[in-house]
Amino acid sequence: MEVLLEKNSPTLASLKVILTKEDYQPKVDKTIKDYTKRVNLKGFRPGKVPTHVIQRMYGKSILVDEVNNILSNAVSTYIRENKLQVVGDPIPDRDKAAEVNWDSPAQFEFTYELGVATDFEVNLSEIPAIKRYTIHVDDAELTKTTDSLRERFSDSIHPEVSEADDMVFGELKQESSEFNTRTAIPTKQVKEEVRSKFIGLKKDDVVTFDIQNTFTEESAIAHVTGKKKEDIGELSGEFTLIVEDITRSAPAAFTPEFFDKVLGPGQAESEEQFNEKVLEIIKGNYERETEALLRRDIETTLLDNIAIELPGEFLKNWLERTNEGKFTREQIEEQFEDFQKSLKLSLIKNKIADKEGVKVEYPEILDFTRQMVKGQFGIYGDDDNMKETIDRVAQGYLADKERDNYTSVFNQVFDNKVLDVIRGQVATDEQTIEVSEFEKLAKGEEVEAA
Questions:
Q1: Using CA atoms in the order 121, 122, 123, 129, what is the torsion angle rounded to 10 degrees?
Q2: Which pTM does this prediction carry?
C-alpha cells in the first residue's frame, strides 16, 4: 500500500491511496472463510458451505467492505502519524471511485480531498498581557443587594389607609349592568391622573371610577373584572369599589427567619453576620463573572495573535453536505465567521494540549459531573449522606449516550485544563474596576480602568 500527499495550496491537499492485491486479498479470503462457517444455505450443512459458493454470492460486497475499511484506516493513520491539521472530513473523489472495476480486482487507486489549516506555532510567552479584573464591591453594592433580597422576601401587611403601590381589595360592581365581583385593584397599574382616588382609602370607603379610563393597560381591566381580554370592550361607564382590605408589600426585616430564607438555616444570627455572608456571595459571583470574562479575553487574544488560514469554501461545502436539510447555504454563510473562530480555537487548544501533555482521565470527568450535580441540588461542601445519590446521578448522566453528555463534560474538563496551562504562562495585567465598569466590559464596551 502506498499513501501519497500532494499539497494543492496552503489549505488544500490531495491524498492518494494505492492498494495492491497483496493489501486486501488476505482480508477478503479470511472474511470469505468466516462466512463459510456462519452462513446457512439450503442444500449445505451448517459450516460446510464451499468457498466458491460464498465467493459467487458475496465476494463483491465483501471486497468492497474490506477495501473501504483499509482505506478508512489508511487515511486516518496517515493524518495522525504525519500530524496533519485536517479540518472537516476527507472527501473522496467520487468520479475516480466510480471508475473502479470491482469485478476484475487488481490494483486500486483512490483519491481524497483534504482541507488543512496552515502551519502555526503557539508560544504563550510571546502573547501580550491580558487584563484580569477584580471588581471593587463597596457598601452601596451591598446595600443594593440586601434591599433587593428584602424586596424578594417581602412581607404582606394590612395598613388602615392605602398608599401608592398598595393592593386594594373589595367588592366591585355596576348596578346598571348588574355586574358584581370581588377583586383586587393594583394601584401600580392605575393611571397617574386618577391614582389619587385610590390613595387614602380605608375599610368600607367607596370609590367610583370609569373602567375604561383608569388603568394603564387593558390586561389590568381583564384582571380586575375577571373578564377575558377580548371581552373587556363590552365594559363601559362607572364602576364602584367598596373597600374591604388593603395589603402592602413591606421589605423583610432583618430577622433570623429572613436570614434563614436567604442563606439557609443557622448561617447568620445577626444583621452583621448576614451582611458578611452576603458580601462573600457577591464577591464570589463577581469572581466567577470575571473568570468568564478572562476566558473570553484569552480566547480573543489567542485568535488575534496566532495566524491560521482555513479552507473557507471547502469547509462551507463540507458543512452544507454534512448538514443537508438542517441548514441552508445562506445560514452557513451567516454563521461561518463564528464557526471559523471556534475551529481555530480548537486547533490552538489541541496544539497546546499536545505540547504540554494535557490529558483528561475518567475520574476527573466524574468529579466534574459530581460538582455539577451538587450545584443542581444546592449542596455546598461535602455531604456524606448524599454522596451515594450524587455518584449515582453523576454516573447516570455520563451514561446518557443519546445526549452525548460524556463528550460534553470531557470537552469542558479539557477546556479548563488547557485554560489553566495558558493562565500559567501568559502574563496578566491586574486591574481593579467598579461594578458599573465591569457591566460595560461584559457587554463588549471599552472602559478605562482606575
A1: 140
A2: 0.70
